[in-house]
Write a structure and sequence with these properties.
Layout: E1 3-6, E2 20-21, H1 23-31, H2 35-41, E3 51-54, E4 61-65, E5 84-85, H3 88-101, E6 105-108, E7 111-119, E8 122-129, E9 135-140, E10 143-145, H4 152-157, E11 161-176, E12 191-196, E13 199-206, E14 212-219, H5 231-239, E15 246-260, E16 264-265, E17 268-270, E18 276-277, H6 285-305, H7 310-339, H8 352-368, H9 370-373, H10 376-380, E19 434-439, H11 446-455, E20 459-464, H12 467-473, E21 477-480, E22 486-490, H13 497-504
Parallel strand pairs: 1-6, 3-12, 10-17, 19-20
Antiparallel strand pairs: 2-5, 3-4, 7-8, 8-9, 11-14, 11-15, 12-13, 13-14, 15-18, 16-17, 19-21, 21-22
Helix pairs in contact: 6-7, 11-13
This protein binds flavin-adenine dinucleotide.
The site of flavin-adenine dinucleotide has 27 residues, from strand 7 and helix 6.
C-alpha cells in the first residue's frame, strides 16, 4: 500500500530497546523476504540463547534456562523460522532500507505529525518539517497511528488507556565493553539476570554477542536524572569487580500495563505501542505490534483494491485487541513472578546457610522462569475466535498454553507450517490473497473460485495428496486469509459459497452460509 510515514526523529537509533523477535515475527519477515537479513543483523548464528540467573558474573550460578530452538538457521518442528535476537538498534535500519526499496514507502524523517482533520471522506494531516519549521498537509485515505505510547492521535480521538500506567521504574545503561568475556567465568548467554539478597536487581542483555550490552537496573526508585546514576557502582556489582567500560547512553523507562479502549474510528487506526503497552517481561511489545500491522495491512489493501468490505476494518479491533489483552496479561504475570521472588538474606554467604538459600532460589527460578523465556505458545498460538470474518466450524478452541504451541487449523488460528517440497513451507503460499487448500480427494472448489471471482477477490488453489497434511489441517478444504490465518474449513464446500466469501472479505452477509459438514 503506497504510504507516507512521518517520523519526528532523524532516523538514527541512539538507544537499544526490543531484542526478542519471536518465531511469528520471523515468519512475517520471511513473508517480506527479509528474514535472512534480519538474522544476519542480529546475534551471531552460533551464539547461545540461554538465560543465566546469577548472583554476579564471578559469583554463584542459580539456574540456567536453555533455549536450544532459539537462534541459528535450522528450522524448528512448527515453523520454517526460529526466534532470533536482533535489537531494534540493528533491526530498524533493515526495516527502513527494505521499506524504501519496496518503492511504496515515502519515509519523511525530521517531520512531526501535528494534527488531522477529516474532509470529504479523506484524512488531512498537518505535519511540520522540524528543521525548517515549514508546515504542510498530507491527504490520505487512511491514517495509522504508530507513534508509540504517547500517541497524540489516540488522545485526539478521545480513546482512553485502560490498565496500570506505572508498574515499575527502570533505568537502561547502554554499554560497550570490548573483551567482556575475559572479565568473568560464567560463559556466554543472551541474558544474565542478577539476583541479590533483595531479589532481582538487574538484567544484562547481550546485544551483538561481542561488545555491546544493555544493563537494565530494576527498582522502585524514579531516577530523576538518569545521567547522574552510579553506573560504575552497577557495573562493579554485576561483575563482582571493577573493569573498564564505555557508557553510550542511559535512559529511564517505566513498565506499564495499558491497552486503549478502542483501536479504530472510521479510517483511523491505532497500532503497536499506540494501542498497547506491556512490561518487557517476555519480550512481547514489538512482536505484538508487528502482528497488528500484519493484520491491518491486508485489510486496508483489500479495501483500497475494492474487494474488501467494512467488516474487514471492523475485524481489526476485534481480532488484535483480544491478542494484546492476552499478551499484556502474560507479561504482567511475569513481572509479578519477579516481584514475588523469595528474599534470601544469606544468599551471598559461603557455606550451608548460603547453599540452602541458593537452592531455594534456584528451585523458584526453575519452576517459574522458563515460562517467561520460552513463549512459543504466545508467538504462534493466538486464535481469532471469535472473529466477525472467520467462520466457526463448531470445534473446541485449541489450548492456549503460553509456552508451547499445538499445531491446528481451527478457524482463526495461524495455518500450521509443513514442508511442501523444494525447501518451501506451506506458509510461503500465503500473503498475496486468499488460498484454498485441497487435501486428498477433496471435491471440486470451482463454486468457491467463481464466488471469489464474482467479488473480484484474489484466490489461489493448491492441492495436496499427502494424508499427513490433511490430518494436520483437520479438514479436506481449508480457506486461508492473506495473513495466513484460517478463515473457514470443512469437508465439503458450503451450500452458499457467495455468502462465505462475503463473510471472509468483510461484506455484509445477507444469506446463511449453509455449512454442510461440521467438524
Ligand atoms: C527496555 C525495553 C525492552 C524491550 N524489549 C522488547 C523485546 O525484547 N521484544 C519486544 O517485542 N518488545 C520489547 N520492547 C517493547 C518495544 O520496544 C516496543 O513495543 C516497540 O518499540 C513499539 O514500537 P512502535 O513502533 O509501536 O512504537 P515506538 O517504537 O515508540 O515508535 C514510535 C515512533 O513514533 C515517533 N513519533 C511519536 N510521535 C510522533 C509525532 N507526533 N510525529 C512524528 N513521529 C512521532 C517516535 O519518534 C517513534 O520513533 C521493549 C521495550 C523496552 C523499553
Amino acid at each position: 500500500v503506497p504510504h507516507v510515514l512521518v517520523e519526528q526523529n532523524d532516523g538514527s537509533v541512539d538507544h537499544p530497546r526490543a531484542n526478542t523477535l519471536n518465531v511469528r515475527s520471523m515468519e512475517i519477515f520471511r513473508r517480506w523476504g527479509i528474514a535472512d537479513e534480519v538474522r544476519l543483523a542480529g546475534m551471531p548464528e552460533d551464539y547461545p540463547h540461554c538465560a543465566l540467573y546469577i548472583t554476579d558474573l564471578n559469583g554463584y550460578e542459580l539456574a540456567n534456562v536453555s533455549r536450544p530452538h532459539h537462534g541459528g538457521t535450522r528450522p524448528t518442528m512448527h515453523s520454517p523460522e526460529r526466534p532470533q535476537r536482533c535489537n531494534q538498534y540493528w533491526l530498524d535500519p533493515v526495516l527502513r532500507r527494505n521499506a524504501i526499496a519496496s518503492g511504496v514507502s515515502d519515509i519523511r524523517h525530521c517531520t512531526s505529525f501535528e494534527h488531522f482533520d477529516e474532509r470529504d471522506g479523506k484524512i488531512v494531516s498537518r505535519v511540520r518539517d522540524t528543521k525548517s519549521g515549514a508546515e504542510y498537509e498530507i491527504e490520505s485515505e487512511y491514517l495509522v497511528a504508530c507513534c508509540g505510547g504517547r500517541s497524540s492521535i489516540r488522545k485526539s480521538l478521545g480513546f482512553q488507556w485502560i490498565g496500570e500506567p506505572t508498574l515499575e521504574y527502570n533505568v537502561n545503561i547502554f554499554l560497550r565493553i570490548p573483551d567482556f568475556w575475559k572479565y568473568h567465568n560464567k560463559g556466554k548467554a543472551s541474558l544474565h539476570f542478577f539476583i541479590g539478597p533483595d531479589g532481582l536487581w538487574a538484567t544484562l542483555a547481550h546485544l551483538d554477542g561481542r561488545e555491546y550490552l544493555r544493563l537494565t537496573v530494576h527498582g522502585h526508585q524514579y531516577y530523576a536524572d538518569p545521567e547522574s546514576i552510579d553506573v560504575e557502582g552497577f557495573v562493579t556489582r554485576m561483575l563482582g569487580r571493577s573493569i573498564p567500560f564505555q557508557v553510550i547512553s542511559t535512559r529511564r523507562w517505566i513498565a506499564r500495563d495499558l491497552i486503549a479502549d478502542r483501536y479504530r474510528r472510521g479510517k483511523i487506526f491505532l497500532a503497536g505501542d499506540a494501542a498497547h503497552q506491556n512490561t518487557p517481561h517476555g519480550g512481547f511489545g514489538l512482536n505484538t505490534g508487528l502482528g497488528d500491522v500484519l493484520d491491518l495491512g491486508w485489510k486496508i489493501a483489500a479495501n483500497l483494491d475494492g474487494w474488501g468490505g467494512e467488516g474487514l476494518l471492523q475485524a481489526y479491533e476485534a481480532e488484535r485487541r483480544a491478542v494484546a489483552k492476552r499478551n499484556l496479561a502474560q507479561a504482567l504475570a511475569h513481572l509479578k513472578v519477579d516481584q514475588s521472588m523469595p528474599r534470601e538474606p544469606n544468599l551471598l554467604e559461603p557455606g550451608e546457610r548460603g547453599d540452602q538459600a541458593r537452592e531455594r532460589l534456584s528451585s523458584f527460578i526453575k519452576e517459574h522462569k522458563p515460562r517467561m523465556l520460552i513463549s512459543d505458545g504466545i508467538a504462534l498460538g493466538y486464535c481469532y475466535d471469535p472473529s466477525p470474518i472467520c467462520v466457526s466450524d463448531g470445534s473446541a478452541l485449541p489450548p492456549d498454553d503460553p509456552m508451547s504451541y499445538s499445531p491446528n487449523a481451527h478457524p482463526g488460528s495461524r495455518a500450521p507450517h509443513a514442508w511442501i517440497g523444494d525447501n518451501r513451507s506451506m506458509l510461503d503460499l500465503f500473503g498475496r490473497g486468499f488460498v484454498i487448500l485441497k487435501f486428498g480427494n477433496a471435491t471440486s472448489t470451482s463454486a468457491l473460485e467463481k464466488a471469489f471471482a464474482g467479488r473480484r477477490a484474489p484466490l489461489e488453489t493448491y492441492e495436496f495428496a499427502d494424508p499427513i497434511l490433511a490430518t494436520l489441517y483437520g479438514a479436506a478444504l481449508v480457506l486461508v486469509r492473506p495473513d495466513g490465518h484460517v478463515a473457514w474449513r470443512g469437508h465439503e464446500l458450503p451450500e452458499n459459497c457467495g455468502a462465505l466469501v462475503d463473510k471472509v472479505v468483510g461484506v455484509e452477509v445477507r444469506k446463511p452460509i449453509g455449512v454442510k459438514v461440521d467438524e
